[in-house]
Amino acid sequence: MKKLLELISEEVSIAFEKSGYDKSAGKVNVSNRPDLCEYQCNGAMALAKALKTAPINIANTVVENLKDSKVFSEVSAVMPGFINLNINPDFLADYVSKMASEEKFGLETPKKLKIMLDYGGPNVAKALHVGHLRSGVIGDAINRICKYMGHETISDIHMGDWGTPMGLIMHELSLRKPDLPYFDESFTGEYPVEPPFTVADLEEIYPTASKKSKEDEEYKAKALEKTYKLQTGVRGYRALWNHIINVSVNDMRRIYDNLGVHFDLWNGESSVHELIPDMVKYMKEGGYAYLSEGALVVDVKEETDTKEMPPCIILKSDGASLYNTTDLATIMDRKQKYNPDRYIYLTDKRQDLYFEQVFRCAHKTKLVSEDTNLAHVGFGTMNGKDGKPFKTRDGGVMRLESLMNDVNEATLKKIKENREMSDEDALRISKIVGLAALKYGDLSNVPAKDYIFDMDRFTSFEGNSGPYILYTIVRIKSILEKFANEGGKIDACKISGVDNASEKELMKELTFFSQTVEAAYEELAPSKICAFIYDLANALNSFYHETKILTEEDVNKKNSYIALINLTKQVLETCIDMLGFSAPERM
Ligand code: ARG
């Protein structure tokens, strides 16, 4: 289904043509003076110069040719040459009614692509903290948007599970429990099934070990040696590493589940380590990689670069692989297994340059074909009210789980203030609302921007917040429920016309659905959807306050209202589903 703005533009273009002008001047936009008109076309101004005539003359002629148009209820030419347009309510109602009957509200989906998404990116044995919120939440939303656009997606968590942190943990453990069989290289028996630590142990061991390694060279050297032994496959270290992964991943799964963030693949940096030797060989033989100060590197500079672009290091001088190396090997692996048309990565924006190097390297070395799109979405930091990265009250790193609990608690309090309900219901609903508060609070910001986590604003039932959107949906649900209880048949209701201004506004908002979803996909910006549903929720609430819906006596009007709010509910629900949350039945 064509977008409303396209249809309007076509109509105006035809009028330009009829008037003897180039039809490309007929492009229409939403008016930037809503007090004067709903839509506007500025094409006359653009044409006037070349034609050496006053823009108002062109505008007047075009307006004359639009007089009988069924698309508009009002058309006027105003100085110096704007064409102001108001849409015909019947045409609008008809359009919105069609949206209601079309699949995906008339969204036209593009050629189907296979898209690989890499988000989450936690490091095993470290607690998930607030820094992990954004990668998971934005990544999951982009995944859902891609799917809605009709693409096939594969999501991979890409854990950090292979580097020095592993050796650090093992070394610290070897000092604490030297008798464990994992450290006895002559041990040939079966290793214990039970892990020798809990997740809480790991979360304490890692920072302790990391601190020690910074202060003690020998400690660091031993940890590196253990990393090396793990990577070269020494049996005991592999067995111990498996425990680290299992314990850690079980915990992560639980937290990501609570966050409603899902991954098709739970791979990590380790998953590709066996591919590295072949990849290195390929890069050397292809003449892409060369030795520079002992390290193996690939140049990724381009002539047009205005900023420094260091080479991509494939192997360090001691032969060890790096973050780069595993990422490139992962691209190779993904290409072989899935052959995606497009790859999308989500990390903190501090990795912008890093990904540019990796992408250039992948293209240059032909790990992926020229037309494979590699995209990185770099996001900003979630800050506290002091403008610094969000911390706990006593200044510690805020665990993701604690943050989620705090948000749920705040929403629980609000729900209880608002409504009488059983403790059990209130608790269940507070989790649904809390998730919306947290995710919408994050997603409503343009990814690259830092934002301030504001508990009161995020959990408020009013203003630009997740709970406000849910509240709007719940409001519609409750009207529809009453209508059904009075014997009304919701599905039989049709949108039939417009009879008040706020109803027209609501319809106009609804028409932006397709272009919003398209833009959110093109720009990889779920924030576009947030802005749209906020406007839509506002329009719905104005309509609700100004219109008697259930008490309307004219049955046709009443049914049309019901169909309109039902469509609004479906659109809102579809959008929040793309954002990764849902609405409760009441709140
Ligand atoms: N584990 C990494 C980090 O903590 C993020 C991984 C992102 N994904 C990737 N393919 N590099 O910074």
Which features would summarize this protein structure in a list?
Gyrase A, domain 2; 587 residues; alpha/beta; Isoleucyl-tRNA Synthetase, Domain 1; single chain; binds arginine; 4-stranded parallel β-sheet; 4-stranded antiparallel β-sheet
CATH-wise, what's the superfamily of the domain at 400-579?
Isoleucyl-tRNA Synthetase, Domain 1
CATH class of the domain at 400-579: Mainly Alpha
Separation, N- and C-terminal Cα atoms: 35 Å
Radius of gyration computed on alpha carbons: 29 Å
The CATH topology label of the domain at 400-579 is Isoleucyl-tRNA Synthetase, Domain 1
Q: Give the strand tally.
A: 13
Q: Major sheet: size, sense and barrel closure?
A: 4 strands, antiparallel
Bound molecules: arginine
Beta-strand proportion: 5-15%
- Largest sheet strand order: 1-2-4-3
Number of helices: 20
| Overall form | globular
The assigned CATH architecture of the domain at 400-579 is Orthogonal Bundle
Low-pLDDT sequence parts: none
Considering DSSP H and I runs of 4 or more, what fraction of the residues is helical?
Answer: 40-55%
**What structural class should be given to the helix and strand makeup?**
alpha/beta
* Mean of all residue-level pLDDT scores: 96
